[in-house]
Amino acid sequence: MNTELISLIGILLALVFVVVGSLKSVSLIILASVAAFLVAATGGVGLLDGYTTYLGGVAGSVTSMFPLFLGGQLLGCFLEQSDLTESIANAIIKKFGARAIVVAVFTVSWILVFCGINVFVIIFTVYPIACAFFKVGDIPRNLIPACVLGACVSEQVLPGVTTTANVLTTEAFGVPAAAGPVTGIVLSVFLFVMNAGYLYVQGEKARKRGEHFVPLPGESFEVNLDREGLPHPMLVIFPLGVVLVALNLFGVPAYASLYLGAVVAMVLFFRRLGGVDGVTRTLNKAAKSSMSVMSTCAIIGFSSIVTAVPGYNLLLGGLEKVSGGNPYIFAFICVAVIAAVSGSATGGVKFVLQSFSERLLAMGGNPASLCRVICASSLTFDSLPHNSAVVLTLNACNVSHKEGYRHVAVTTVLNTTIATVIAIVFAMIGIR
Q1: Which residues contact 289 (CB under 8 A, 6 or more apart)?
Q2: Which residues have CB under 8 Å from 277's CB, separation 6+?
Q3: CB 165, CB 175: distance < 8 Å
Q4: What is the pLDDT of residues 98-123, one digit of tens each?
């Protein structure tokens, strides 16, 4: 058995190990470290040298991604602590009635993702709001996870935003953050309508079946649609506007744009946040939440050791054959496969950009189109049952896989795969 084949078997075994470990809720930091040792051992690069390569990949990822995570958490925490998210949900329900509750919760989640907030933080922010409103509408809680995750994928395909996938891809291919505007906007509208529409229909069906919202022991969620003193929902335009203008018009780095938006939100809601003490508590909360970057970077670092062993060449050749030489199908397959086995959309994107970006361009891929295809592809099979965000969201909502995953699968696997196909077709016919 030749060296390349042994190395490839080691890579595949390592990926299987990561998947199985994720299903058992083992930390991605531990899984990635062990997987790196396995790849190094079978790749002939030496255990210590291979692990050093892995650590270099982790360190580089932390350096590039931590500011994004921190900026997103800062902006999101200021908006959430100011009661702006509750104000937005209230406004939607007052305008469209109690039947718009599912769409209201979906929209609040969408806005939080738009701010660059990590899904691991969004679920804890949205959950109490969702429960309070779902109790008013008597909608079963098994739709809450899909409301959050379905909103996340609906926003993450937009051009010109500070989401990790968009920042990583546009920087890698040297194009503006708003590259591929037509494709990105079409995909985002498609996913928003399809996901929000699906969840609304499921809420109506649950109502007809006689299903109800059942509070768990110790839970007490109340909402007052007539609560006074909430900030005007349109105030969200100011911090978000600063982020978008800084990023897209002045070319400010994504993390710095988020910092600017956070400062605007802090000044705008200073008194509502509780003055200096309240701002300090919010800053501490955001800083703690930003540490979730480590799990993502652990998986990303794994790609650095994979690309350093002989089996990588066999893996690359196999993926090229499956894609038929089409750069967009190649990108889809690569990102979707890596995101699936690692359970990380960001991990899949970073892995492919580090490993195949030059190859994709050499195959004739348009940089702007590749950005939109890769962003969409990362949101497909990353949401399989073992995905850490899926597991965390279901657990946080006290919903089992049996009760809630089918809704998550429709909004984050089925609909996103359809959206990716649309992106590939657009790329092939020259629509950017």
Answers
A1: 73, 77, 118, 120, 121
A2: none
A3: no
A4: 778 888 889 888 887 877 666 766 77
- Distance, first Cα to last Cα, the chain: 46
Written as one string, the DSSP assignment of 327-348 is HHHHHHHHHHHHHHHHT-HHHH
Q: Kindly report the backbone phi and psi dihedral angles of residue 417, in degrees, each rounded to the nearest multiple of 5, phi listed first.
A: -65, -40
> Pick from 226, 222, 378, 232: which is nearest to 300 by CA?
378
Instruction: Record the pTM.
Output: 0.76
Torsion of CA 395, 214, 101, 185, to 10 degrees: 20
Neighbours of 278 (CB within 10 A): 17
Query: pLDDT band at 172, cuts 50/70/90?
Result: very high
Distance between CA atoms of residues 140 and 130, nearest Å: 11
How far apart (Å, rounded) are the C-alpha atoms in residues 269 and 231? 9
User: Counting every residue, how long is the chain?
Assistant: 432
Higher pLDDT, 331 or 298: 331
**What is the C-alpha separation between 100 and 107, in angstroms, rounded?**
10
In whole angstroms, how large is the CA radius of gyration of the chain? 22
DSSP per-residue string spanning 31-69: HHHHHHHHHHHHHTS-HHHHHHHHHHHHHHHHHHHHHHH
Q: Specify the pLDDT at position 137.
A: 83
